[in-house]
Amino acid sequence: MADQTIVEALLLGILEGLTEFVPVSSTAHLLLAGHFLGFESTGKTFEVLIQLGAIMAILTVYFMRLVRMAAALPSDRKTRRFVAGVLLAFLPAAVIGAGAHGFIKQVLFETPVLICTVLIVGGVILLWIDRLPLKPRYTDIMDYPLGLCFKIGLFQCLAMIPGTSRSGSTIAGALLMGTDKRSAAEFSFFLAMPTMAGAFTLDLYKNRDVLTFDDAVIIGAGFVTAFAAGAFVVKYLLDYVSKHGFALFAWWRIAVGTVGLIGLLLLG
């Protein structure tokens, strides 16, 4: 295994961590970067499996809060409702992801023009939502009704299309249904835990017979940098979006999608 591959894996891991929890589509960034770098992973598993680093980043930053929730679960009704809401929101993606896994990996992951186009369209939609004069009814994730959680989970299913963004679709859906920006982003963090863990487990199981030791080393390298970059983003993102909204991420999506289309046109 070439040293250059390890370097690429480290760089892609940083890219995963920086983009997983912001509404720009980490999968799109990884697939496009891998396309132009000539980076190929067995069964396109690298792009999914290094999400374990991002999962660990959330668990690290939210560790004490998760411990308090676990302790309160038997006796506190609000905590039980919140946990049930997260699991309910996770359910649609679990069903669709398991059923459409092959199509997503073999068709959608292999269509860079679609990915770039979705990035641009999603950026325009995010700009529109960010500028709407929305009046939030829910500002605390612990108060989200179960029906609202399930509807956010339906929005998350849009992220099956690379370029849509898991966090982007959940945040946009939450904002349109009456949440404020900070709580929408925070609920997206919590929903990421079962969603990304489920995607990791399914992809690892589906590719268990084709992965090699070299793949494990590359994935491990990406995991480390994804963890470090993800922890940084989770720690500071909520304060940023509370003050500045999502316009920066929308324009970034449009720029990356446009540059990607130009690159595909010129380089193939």
UniProtKB/TrEMBL annotation:
Its EC number is 3.6.1.27. It catalyses: di-trans,octa-cis-undecaprenyl diphosphate + H2O = di-trans,octa-cis-undecaprenyl phosphate + phosphate + H(+). One of its GO terms (molecular function) is undecaprenyl-diphosphatase activity. This is Undecaprenyl-diphosphatase. Bacitracin is thought to be involved in the inhibition of peptidoglycan synthesis by sequestering undecaprenyl diphosphate, thereby reducing the pool of lipid carrier available. It is a multi-pass membrane protein. One of its GO terms (cellular component) is plasma membrane. Keywords: Antibiotic resistance, Cell membrane, Cell shape, Cell wall biogenesis/degradation, Hydrolase, Membrane, Peptidoglycan synthesis, Transmembrane, Transmembrane helix. The keyword Lipid biosynthesis does not apply. The gene is uppP. The keyword Nuclease does not apply. NCBIfam families: PRK00281.1-2, undec_PP_bacA. It is found in: Cell membrane. GO terms for biological process: cell wall organization; peptidoglycan biosynthetic process; regulation of cell shape; response to antibiotic. Belongs to the UppP family. Catalyzes the dephosphorylation of undecaprenyl diphosphate (UPP). Confers resistance to bacitracin. It holds the Pfam family BacA. It comes from the Bacteria. PANTHER family: UNDECAPRENYL-DIPHOSPHATASE. The chain crosses the membrane at residues 48-70, 82-103, 109-129, 187-205, 217-238, 250-267.
